[in-house]
TrEMBL record:
InterPro entries: 7TM_GPCR_serpentine_rcpt_Sre, Serpentine_rcpt_epsilon. Belongs to the nematode receptor-like protein sre family. One of its GO terms (biological process) is sensory perception of chemical stimulus. The chain crosses the membrane at residues 20-44, 56-77, 97-119, 140-160, 166-185, 226-248, 254-272. PANTHER family: SERPENTINE RECEPTOR CLASS EPSILON-13-RELATED (PTHR47518), SERPENTINE RECEPTOR, CLASS E (EPSILON)-RELATED (PTHR47518:SF11). It comes from Caenorhabditis angaria. Its main location: membrane. The lineage of its organism: Eukaryota, Metazoa, Ecdysozoa, Nematoda, Chromadorea. It comes from the Eukaryota. It is found in: Membrane. This is Uncharacterized protein. GO terms for cellular component: membrane. Keywords: Membrane, Transmembrane, Transmembrane helix. It is a multi-pass membrane protein.
Length: 340
């Protein structure tokens, strides 16, 4: 038998005044969900438009916002159904519909729980495939990791619906442990890249491609370390709240978890934006587009995207891909011959 998980039980509300208070609360919650959905879709657009991170990281991050949106739509459907039931004499909810929405929401929540593990695996590949990770995009990696994320989340959602007791609490405790371990592993990855960088400075055995990837890994770590820590903390708080809600199954605990999720989906994009220069510029640009009184929008000079040009040693711009490739081949040959 499958149990409902994180679902508001209308039939347990006996007091009429309490029912009215819940109805008012749900109307407010619906508007908050809609605002949060628009906020999430906006940052999904920013993620897809701005090439701040490696394509694999961007793909995984975009999927995170897609599942936020799916969770928000399912959550909205739950609230609308419950409000409709509250206005009728029969407050019983169709079990099949309740189970479907509960499964979808729980799957999306476990996607958020496991996302830090998936992002950490991506950083491991970026660290140990220094030679070709940037030149060969390896987008199959991000798609494979997303599939793994979905499979883990679906299995976990089914597990907590089937086992509504100690076993599901053990799984949620495991989620907390995974997030703490993933956050620690990201610091280990940083130390590994830092040692690679020190070796590259003292020994001339690394190619230009390796040196570039090491510097990119270090630069990206400085931008993602705070979002990673934030995800780990919020995931642990949410998992602990879910564990408590399974022990004390009340409508009030469900509403508390809903509030935590609302804050979660709002805070993560904001923290990521604060740590990403290109994201900040894109958000500023989008705000000016939305609130500009002029019909024709002209991009301010201070936030225009920089044009990157590759020049040879004489300062002449290299115009074709072949020229650029030949130039870097020559630099590589000079590096190996002269060992400077």
């Amino acid at each position: 038998m499958m149990h409902l998980f994180m679902f508001f039980n209308v039939s347990t509300v006996e007091d009429a005044r309490t029912l009215i208070n819940y109805r008012i609360m749900f109307h407010v919650e619906i508007w908050m969900i809609i605002i949060n959905l628009l906020h999430t879709l906006f940052f999904l657009r920013v993620t897809l438009n701005i090439k701040q991170y490696h394509r694999n990281w961007t793909n995984i991050q975009a999927f995170l916002y897609i599942q936020y949106s799916l969770h928000g739509l399912t959550w909205l459907a739950q609230r609308l159904i419950i409000i409709c039931r509250l206005t009728e004499d029969n407050v019983e909810l169709d079990n099949c519909l309740a189970l479907i929405t509960s499964l979808i929401r729980t799957t999306c929540i476990f996607c958020s729980f496991y996302i830090l593990l998936i992002l950490t695996i991506e950083r491991v590949f970026a660290t140990f495939f220094l030679e070709s990770y940037e030149t060969v995009r390896k987008q199959i990696l991000s798609f494979s990791l997303i599939i793994l994320l979905v499979v883990l989340s679906v299995l976990s959602a089914l597990f907590v619906h089937y086992f509504n007791g100690v076993f599901s609490n053990m799984l949620i405790f495991l989620v907390i442990l995974i997030n703490i371990t993933a956050a620690w592993l990201n610091n280990v990855i940083y130390e590994v890249n830092r040692k690679f960088n020190q070796t590259a400075q003292t020994h001339n055995k690394y190619s230009l491609g390796r040196r570039y990837q090491i510097s990119e890994n270090l630069k990206n770590w400085k931008m993602i370390r705070i979002p990673i820590l934030t995800i780990a903390i919020l995931n642990s708080i949410l998992a602990a709240a879910m564990c408590i809600s399974k022990i004390f199954t009340t409508n009030f605990t469900v509403i508390i978890i809903d509030f935590i999720i609302l804050m979660y989906t709002f805070i993560i994009p904001q923290i990521t934006m604060r740590c990403s220069p290109l994201w900040r510029k894109e958000v500023q640009r989008s705000k000016q587009r939305l609130f500009s009184t002029s019909k024709v929008f002209s991009e301010p000079a201070e936030i225009q995207r920089p044009r990157i040009e590759v020049c040879n040693v004489f300062g002449k711009r290299l115009r074709t891909t072949q020229d650029v490739s030949e130039h870097f081949d020559n630099l590589q040959k000079m590096w190996e011959d002269n060992k400077f």
